[in-house]
Amino acid sequence: MASRRPGVRKELKRNDAAYNLNNSDAQHNRNPFIDYPELAEYIWGNKKGEKVDLSKLKNAYSGVSYDYPIVVQPSSGTKIGFGSVNINEKNTQSFTLKAAAVTKDFTLTVSGTHSDFFVVSPSKVTAEQALAGQPVAVIYQPTQTGKHTATLTISSSEVVDVVMELSGTGRLAGTGGGDEMPDGDYVKVESTPSDWKGYYLIVNEQSGKALNGDRGNENADKSMISVEINDNTIVADETTNNAAFVIEEVSGGFTIKATDDMYYGITENGNKINISDEQILNDISISASGDAIISGTGSLSERKLNYNTAGYFRYYTNPQKPVQLYKKAGNVPSELNNVVADYTIRALQGEVKIELKEPASVSVYDYMGRLVVTRTAVSNFVYALPQGLYIVRIGQKAEIVLVR
Which residues of the chain form CATH 2.80.10.50? Predict the structure, then answer.
């Protein structure tokens, strides 16, 4: 029996039933005030107006004993973010699978478009292990650049499935603070550069904040780091290098690309930042006072990237706090001097397929670095390959792909 009054226990059970993803008649949502009773304090009580951190709130399921099978933790909807990870490197996150009153074993499976990049261990948990609380590791090891998502499902024949969201971003070493980045610190851009190409921090000097290109699961406009500015210089370290953006002048404007290869800009009317895996054009100039004027293009040219007192970097029409650009000193890596137009690369079963918006040279190497095939000035590339890892070089940009 429950250690709390029966009414509370009944509410918890009803909340689980309402969320039941296996029941088409269920609502498939939860009442957060049942899961976290303390939330009421943040709306009507002594904590009204304070920021809510669910990870620090006591879950209503804690300290309750059950006479029916249930997964106590984790709960459905839990998100596990891995941030940006270099190609072929690993990032491991963990949680505890805790159940009550169960007699059947659990199966943990990863599914979705990018499920190959995520591994869960163990994939089987006995009822006895779940009753005691079984640590579970989730490993993210990307073999391609870009944003990756998957679903982790914890299932058993006697409980409602627990569905968790996994996300991470694969990047090439050197695009977020790796060895290929220049060694210099970030120096304020006070006049129009002769060559825009390079790594930049987008800063609001007054608040000491910089927009964070390594945002993980955070909203783009709210993700930021603290920076210390001395003599118009910000010292480079792992945090600042990961937060940096690549700014490049292209036909029709400028692109701002984060460490996860996502482009930042404004594509729709509103106080916001838009991000996309396709290029977003910006207009960028430096004012006489040394502020960076970063604005949308076309009908959105009146929207400028600013920082406001609520703590957001967004594109506004009304004046807010200006931003400044700090450029990383040192030679620009050769990779940025040979930027290839957008392309799509797919490692299919038994072949690799590449579609390019503009012709470029394509070379494929095996995992030992031996050349397999090379083509020049191609827009579409398809080549049959045995199962294995390959290095695909497009222009001067390289990616590792897994052919199954």
Answer: 186-328
